[in-house]
Specification:
By secondary structure, this protein is of the alpha+beta class. It is built from 5 helices and 13 strands. The mean pLDDT is 92.
């Protein structure tokens, strides 16, 4: 016996009379935040070049935001998943292929796209410096890596009845030669007795399309937390490396200097001495412990 709903319809009958056009539906986009750690233009006296965090952006070749810089991305097609759309768009717009993309989150603020109702399923990845060569394609005028700076400007905390509100303000800077993009983003945590919520908002935006400054901020915070909590930075290292070289990668991602002793304790157990020494600085070489 077939089950009927409160209107007396079986599932088949319900689907036959269902009209999807009766309900307004959003478009779905996939946007990618692709990071890399590369040597900075200026080295340090120690002989180890300073590392910097970079972000891949494309210059939009069409409206809206014509000529503005944006994250690589595009619309999900009816015959593909969001994961497949992300990989396809990244390849079409930048030439990068075979990149492991981790889902970052869903961004659905009202009015985030002036064309229509668009929800973005965003992804992030951290790639090695050997993959810095990119080629613009599809509807992108240009594709380029930008040096990234993300620093805290202010912090405020207010007590509530059985909770608190804590807010941070950050400055995002992206530079590529003589071009610089800026944004100011706030992150607010509201904690109550049985709930906790996090909200981001863009206070100032100079040069970035859509709400991509917000997506980038979320991705940076995720990347920095992963760097502190996991072995993600080790995947950027060659087969053999020195501890100062590894520390430069950590500092490039975190955007701050780390005390040598604190850093060595952090990576203890994750790396193993090889018994060899670097040719340039005479430092002991390490490799990643096999379990990692």
């Amino acid at each position: 016996m077939e089950i009927v709903d409160r209107n007396g319809l079986t599932e088949r009958a319900f689907l036959e009379q269902y009209r999807a056009g009766d309900y307004e539906r959003p478009s779905v986009a996939a946007d990618m935040v692709i990071f890399a750690v590369a040597d900075a233009d200026q080295g340090e006296d120690s002989g180890f070049p300073e590392k910097e965090l970079r972000l891949l952006l494309i210059r939009r070749g069409g409206h809206p935001f014509l000529g503005k810089w944006a994250l690589p991305g595009g619309f999900v097609q009816p015959d593909e998943t969001a994961d497949q759309a992300a990989a396809r768009e990244l390849s079409e717009e930048t030439g990068l292929n075979d990149v492991y993309l981790e889902q970052l989150g869903v961004f659905s603020d009202v009015g985030r796209d002036p064309r229509t109702w668009v929800i973005s399923c965003s992804y992030m990845a951290l790639v090695s410096s050997g993959r810095l060569q990119v080629q613009a394609g599809d509807d992108a005028q240009d594709a380029a890596w930008f040096k990234l700076s993300y620093r805290q400007l202010a912090e405020h905390k207010e007590q509530l009845d059985k909770g608190y509100v804590q807010a941070w303000t950050y400055e995002l800077k992206l530079s590529n030669g003589g071009e610089e993009l800026k944004a100011v983003i706030s992150r607010t945590v509201t904690a109550r007795l049985h709930s906790k919520s996090v909200a981001y908002s863009v206070q100032l935006n100079d040069g970035l399309a859509f709400d991509h400054a917000k997506i980038i901020a979320c991705a940076i915070e995720r990347l920095r937390k992963q760097t502190l909590d996991s072995d993600i930075a080790l995947h950027l290292m060659p087969e053999q490396f020195t501890l100062p070289e590894l520390q430069q990668v950590y500092e490039g991602i975190l955007g701050e200097k780390l005390p040598v002793g604190e850093f060595e304790r952090r990576v203890e157990g994750m790396v193993v001495e090889t018994g060899e020494y670097s040719h340039d600085a005479g430092q002991v070489c390490f490799h990643v412990r096999k379990e990692f």
